[in-house]
Design a protein that fits this description.
Layout (H helix, E strand, L loop, with lengths): L1 H5 L1 H6 L1 H33 L5 H50 L2 H6 L2 H44 L1 H8 L2 H38 L1 H6 L3 H53 L5 H42 L20 E8 L9 E8 L4 E6 L5 H8 L7 E6 L2 E2 L5 H4 L3 E4 L10 H5 L8 H10 L3 H5 L18 H13 L5 E5 L7 H14 L4 E5 L11 E6 L2 E6 L1 H7 L2 H19 L1
Parallel strand pairs: 3-8, 3-9, 6-7, 7-8
Antiparallel strand pairs: 1-2, 1-4, 4-5, 9-10
Helix pairs in contact: 3-4, 3-6, 3-11, 4-6, 6-7, 6-8, 6-11, 7-10, 8-10, 8-11, 10-11, 15-17, 19-20
Bound molecules: adenosine-5'-triphosphate.
The site of adenosine-5'-triphosphate has 13 residues, from helix 12.
Membrane topology: Multi-pass membrane protein
GO molecular function: ATP binding
InterPro entries: AAA+_ATPase, ABC1_TM_dom, ABC1_TM_sf, ABC_transporter-like_ATP-bd, ABC_transporter-like_CS, P-loop_NTPase, Type_1_exporter
Length: 583
């Protein structure tokens, strides 16, 4: 029953719809009493030779009117209750999707995509069933069952009714007992489905790697094991499910047997007429569905309850990134002051950044270099507010970045990581993703700055070329350039290129960087790169090692320090020369 309380907020919101549904159900139940009673009268009329053509016609008209009445009332409740269920599904889907949009990087590190998809599909369906089928089963078992019972008692015989309902409490006990077990089993089954979903999602996304490493068989074996495990867990739900129906059938059979024995005795002793007994047995037949409804209701509620708890577990997860209620509503501009004393990734004991400090005037360029895993991306992630749990302060335009409203802060930053996500859409739509209303001329201008125009011109479909899922039909370099064009479209105050030109050749990279310098004279840029020539023109370069700044200065200053930068730069220059000579 608790799921109805948990969904109380929705039923209160949609009370008019549900009231209409319940009224429809009550009317359907009341009208449903009429035909069996009429049939009983007809039987008595035949038995007592009192049935006339006129009374038969009246009976037929009443039955026809009852049928038409039920047609209308059924239409009323179906529309109302199924409409209500669809509304709940919509509300929960929207809420969950919005929640996904707001959650932080830690959330996505904790939950896997397949798991989240399972919550958004199977679990929401189970909850929706409570507001549709569940309400119907609840109302049916109480309204139809109750009305029929009253009719049996008032219109036929109360003693016979009591005998017929003696086995009913057994149904409540069985339903309650199995319902409890189903709750636990169904939660486990949904969790198993999540794992399976996740496995399928990961295997499909990673199919190229699986094939390249010849792991198809091993992966199929792993998948089969997960299927077996899921089926094993589901089997328990099925067993519990299949215990319901026979229990109900058994209880009904006992009721019928008792009714026929006692009813037969009453007829022979003239306590009730044969017509009454026929009506009574028809009413008892009408009790079958409400009794099944009781069983199904427990089942629906427990499934809905288990799924509701799972979805609520997700919705109750709070993002660690707090968007200030009355955050600064302005676009960040001006100088950046980065002062991070220490940063550890959540759930990671190691320190990822220590004493990283730099100041960047509006329009300047900062280069960040260092070996693999030195902390270059981490420096950027803190500016992008992926994590807020650092010791220190990062200011933009004189204000702590945490004091800006996220909706104003993030759109001012153009972030291009090494592997940008592209949507399965056309090149044009990917470029103007941040503003689908911009003109073709604007799209072409940013494509030109990213040195992508010639490449697009060479494609048969040009800007209408579909890039495929995650941009699969483009080369690595084309994907990177498209991502840069997409970031440039918003003319960001701060452009962050996180190894975003690693897949293009040095010459093209130099061209793109020159374009950016010319176009973005008053805008700030941060470039992290492994190829040191990418940052040699920066106003300041910092060299990171194990999360700490070990060298800093301009290119010329760093070359004079004869440290990691100077050594690396010389080596890379030599490699370029050797490559050039070989070609
Ligand atoms: N989400 C995360 N959770 C825990 N640790 C992380 C996370 N992301 C990165 N790290 C760790 O933080 C350290 C710095 O990683 P980061 O990605 O900043 O390095 P990087 O210098 O950008 O490396 P690369 O040159 O390979 O891109 C690494 O040791 C990495 O394992």
């Amino acid at each position: 029953m608790s799921i109805f309380l948990k969904l109380g907020w929705y039923f209160r919101r949609e009370w008019k719809l549900y009231l209409a549904g319940v009224i429809g159900l009550i009317l359907t139940a009341i009208i449903g009493i009429v035909p069996p009673r009429i049939i009983g009268n007809v039987v008595d009329g035949i038995d007592q030779h009192t049935l006339t053509a006129r009374s038969l016609t009246v009976y037929l008209v009443i039955i026809a009117a009852a049928a038409i009445g039920q047609y209308l009332t059924r239409y009323l409740w179906r529309n109302a209750i199924w409409g209500g269920a669809a509304g709940l599904e919509r509300t929960l889907r929207e809420r969950l999707f919005w929640h996904f949009m707001k959650m932080d990087a830690t959330f996505y590190q904790t939950y896997r995509t397949g798991d989240l998809m399972a919550h958004a599909t199977n679990d929401l369906t189970a909850i929706e069933r409570v507001a549709g089928g569940g309400i119907l089963q609840f109302a049916d078992s109480i309204i139809t069952g109750g009305t029929t019972l009253i009719a049996m008692m008032m219109l036929i015989d109360w003693r016979l009714t009591i005998i017929a309902v003696v086995p009913f409490p057994l149904l409540a006990v069985v339903s309650w007992y199995l319902g409890q077990k189903i709750h636990v089993a169904f939660r486990a089954s949904q969790a198993a489905f999540s794992r399976l979903n996740n496995k399928a999602q990961e295997s499909i996304s990673g199919i190229k790697v699986i094939k390249a490493l010849g792991q198809e068989k091993a992966d199929v074996k792993d998948f089969n094991q997960q299927i077996d495990q899921t089926i094993k867990i589901n089997r328990r739900v099925n067993i519990l499910d299949s215990l319901f129906d026979p229990a109900i059938t058994f209880i009904i059979a006992v009721s019928y047997a008792a009714t026929i024995v006692l009813g037969g005795l009453y007829v022979t002793h003239h306590v009730i007429t044969i017509g009454n007994l026929v009506s009574f047995i028809t009413y008892l037949g009408m009790m079958v569905w409400p009794m099944f409804a009781v069983g199904m209701l427990f089942n629906t509620m427990e499934r809905g309850n288990a799924s509701y708890d799972r979805v609520m577990d997700l919705l109750n997860q709070k993002s660690a990134i707090v968007d200030q209620k009355h955050g600064l509503a302005q676009r960040p501009t001006g100088d950046i002051d980065y002062q991070v004393k220490q940063f550890n990734y959540p759930n990671d004991a190691g320190t990822s950044l220590r004493n990283v400090q730099f100041q960047l005037k509006a329009g300047q360029t900062l280069g960040i270099v260092g070996r693999v895993g030195a902390g270059k991306s981490t420096v950027m992630k803190l500016i992008l507010r992926e994590f807020d749990n650092y010791d220190g302060q990062i200011s933009y335009g004189g204000h702590d970045i945490k004091s800006y409203a996220l909706d104003n802060f993030l759109p001012a930053i153009g972030y291009v990581p090494q592997d940008s996500f592209l949507f399965s859409n056309t090149i044009r739509e990917n470029i103007r993703f941040a503003d689908p209303t911009v003109s073709q001329a604007t799209v072409e201008a940013v494509a030109a700055k990213s040195d992508l125009s010639d490449q697009i011109a060479g494609m048969t479909e040009g800007y209408d070329t579909q890039v495929g899922e995650e941009g699969i039909s483009l080369s690595g370099g084309q994907r990177q350039r498209l991502a840069i064009a997409r970031a440039l479209l918003i003319n960001p105050e701060l452009l962050i290129l996180d190894d975003a030109l690693s897949a293009v050749d040095a010459e093209t990279e130099a061209e793109i960087l020159a374009n950016l310098k010319a176009e973005r004279a008053d805008k700030t840029t941060i470039i992290a790169a492994h190829r040191l020539s990418s940052v040699m023109n920066a106003d300041e370069i910092i060299v990171l090692d194990a999360g700490e700044v070990v060298e800093r200065g301009t290119h010329a200053e760093l070359m004079q320090q004869h440290g990691w930068y100077a050594k690396m730069f010389t080596r890379q220059q030599l490699e370029t020369k050797v490559e050039g000579a070989v070609q």
